[in-house]
Amino acid sequence: MVEKWRFINSGKCSPSYNMALDEALLNWHSEGMIPPTVRFYGWNPATLSIGYFQKVEKEIDIEQVNEYGLGFVRRPTGGRGVLHDQELTYSVIVSENHEKMPASVTEAYRVISEGILEGFRQVGLDAYFAIPRSDEEKNALKNPRSAVCFDAPSWYELVVEGRKVAGSAQTRQKGVILQHGSIILDMDEERLFNLFRYSNNRVKERMRRNFKTKAVSINSLRESPLSLNEAVDAFRLGFEKGLNIQLEEYQLSDEEEKQILILAQKYESDDWNYRK
Fold first, then answer.
1. φ/ψ bin of 48: left (φ > 0), alpha (ψ from -120 to 50), beta (otherwise)
2. CA–CA dist 185, 88 (Å, integer)
3. CATH of the domain at 169
4. Most CB atoms closer than 10 Å: which of 30, 107, 154, 199?
5. What total number of domains does the chain contain?
6. Confidence class of residue 106 from pLDDT cuts 50, 70 and 90?
């Protein structure tokens, strides 16, 4: 029998709410209160999220973030800076000891990302997993030169025609895997590159030139643009096929919403977002 997982489509939410809900789902699943869950969401306003270990002062131009009127939040997951704008964001919450989940982080990443791979197939794109082969590629993963997430694919991230089309990050807490990531529909490259600090303009321009060869949005690859609603339908089906599950729609209760709003205070605080 096909296993039933929960499906939540949150729509566009504030940055603090988005991170709080992902954390709440992890907590609830660890306590056995909810089944494994796939969640889709967007961002209002468009937001720069940074990885758990990134240093704001060193890497991020906060004045530009504010000038563009963007939200700003630190994720509970690792990885680098992501501008969440014209995209479908997903999260997957599942126990580490679930029968579908390999013990190794990279292999679990591959299994979860099968859902995204199938989603790309649903929208007519021939995506495949990036597997770093050379020592140079492996070293680049350990020592990223750029604070921009889409600057290079990591193990098992999704690539079309050699360029990254989705970026994901993972954390494991309380025996639960939380993996979330961005499926980019359209990309404002100039704005993205203005949000980070560089040693000088020459470095910035070189990285931006290189970026064009490393990352691409879905709608740059399709003849007809994909709408957000079409993306939701395609990637929902992709997760069902890729993970061999059935997704059942769920609406959060008032009590759950209250808990999320309390948790969201953490993600609104300077102590969390700007910590050294």
1. beta
2. 7
3. 3.30.930.10
4. 154
5. 1
6. confident
What contacts 179, CB < 8 A, 6 or more positions away? 77, 91, 92, 108, 109, 112, 168, 169, 170
Q: Which residue would you say has higher pLDDT here, 133 or 104?
A: 104
Residue 167 φ then ψ, to 5°: -125, 135
Q: State pLDDT tens for residues 209-259.
A: 888 888 999 999 999 999 999 999 999 999 999 999 999 999 999 999 999
Q: Are 220 and 185 in contact (CB under 8 A)?
A: no
Q: Terminal CA-to-CA distance of the chain, rounded, Å?
A: 48
Q: Find the mean pLDDT for residues 31-49.
A: 98
How many other CB atoms are there within 10 angstroms of residue 145's CB atom?
11
Ranges of beta strands (E only) in the chain are 3-13, 37-43, 47-50, 71-74, 82-84, 87-95, 128-129, 158-160, 163-164, 166-173, 176-184, 245-249
Domain containing 106 equals 3-273
Residue 156 pLDDT grade (very low, low, confident, very high; cuts 50, 70, 90): confident
